[in-house]
Amino acid sequence: MKRILIKEATIINEGRSFIGSVIIEDEKISRIIEGITVPNEIYTEVIDSKGKYLIPGAIDDHVHFREPGLTQKADIFSESRAAAAGGVTSFMDMPNTSPQTTTIETLNDKFQLGAEKSLVNYSFYFGATNTNTDQLAKLDPHRVCGVKLFMGSSTGNMLVDRKESLQKVFGGTDLLIAAHCEDAAIIARNTRLAKEKYGDDPDIIYHSKIRSEEACYASSSLAIELANKANARLHILHISTAREMKLFSKAPLKEKKITAEACLAHLLFNENMYETLGTRIKCNPSIKTLIDSTILRAGISDNRIDVVGTDHAPHLLSEKEGGALRAASGMPFIQFSVVSMFELAQENNFTKENVVQKMCHAPAELFQINNRGFIREGYQADLVLVDPNYQWLVTDESVLSKCGWTPINGCEINHKVIRTFVNGHTVYKDGQLDDSYRGQELKFR
Description:
By secondary structure, this protein is an alpha/beta fold. The chain has helices spanning 76-85, 104-117, 163-171, 184-198, 207-210, 213-230, 242-245, 264-268, 274-277, 290-302, 337-346, 352-366; strands at residues 3-13, 16-25, 28-34, 45-48, 53-56, 58-63, 88-93, 121-124, 126-127, 147-151, 177-181, 234-236, 258-263, 307-309, 383-387, 392-393, 412-413, 416-422, 425-429, 432-433.
């Protein structure tokens, strides 16, 4: 039996930080020991972790790994490597691939790809459309993380814009419904007006005027109305406006059926940064004002934001050329999400315990993931060591995502993931990855 002792770390778990040690036996956490005294036993490896954070592996509820069909910019193998290097030990991938994950067959094909190619643990959303709502009842609730609903997206035929279809989605499943909320009619009107005033491809600075606060609020409000009527579980993704924050409760997560996700892009960036970062920070929903990002950060600590994900969405830099309309929307971020959140905590936006709650515990609770997301005896040993005193410069050359760039190129940060365990196995250590390891399929409920 493999026995690893992680010794004298600062363990951040379940709302508190304390000095302690963790023993891993094969895939699982076997013991948690508070204080500096550890059992004098035989170990396969002893890791001196004094001064380092030990946290549960992050669970990213919102990624686009682009496979199948879009693998020129990313694939499950390349992006799961980036995840491991960033301390993300589990991910849930979105259905807007080619073909789209909108049938049971394409969903099963994706699970097979995950088993063959992912270094970390995985699950996949089923994509709702106007015409496939009869399939929702056939989904395995122990295997499928949730149903993805595009309300205000132009992603192929995945925009669900018929009221009858929306009602069928909200009334047709007990699975969590993860919704992208932007009102398509408002965006179309804003696009027409912007083109009339600024030409066929307005400058990126107008992106937040086209995909506006009004478009986000109108769609989020409608989704909440429909979910309440159907008593459905609704998780609104990538909230981007202060106005939308008024729609969400500060109650504990276990008391909510309507929840909110914030993504790193909307926490880190604001529209003033378009001048320097340009289309590198173009995403949907758009980056909004400094006030919006400030209120979103406050939502981390006051509990209106329940989960922090990445919306990791790689594009080639050539696809990011253009302005508010022609440049592709989305950015890679999974490799830098955990350390970026600890950077924000260091700036007193919220606490390091909040970081672990929103990136590790809350996704496990919300999606009802079995035996992950916490440092608990008997749980899978998905664990991450973070050095909080490691100054380094992020460059495009350090990016493991296939697209080869990051929106935080040139930033100096003070936190670094130094080791990532997936099911007790060291997948990442000091810049080296074990490309031979494969993660496990997440199990739910």
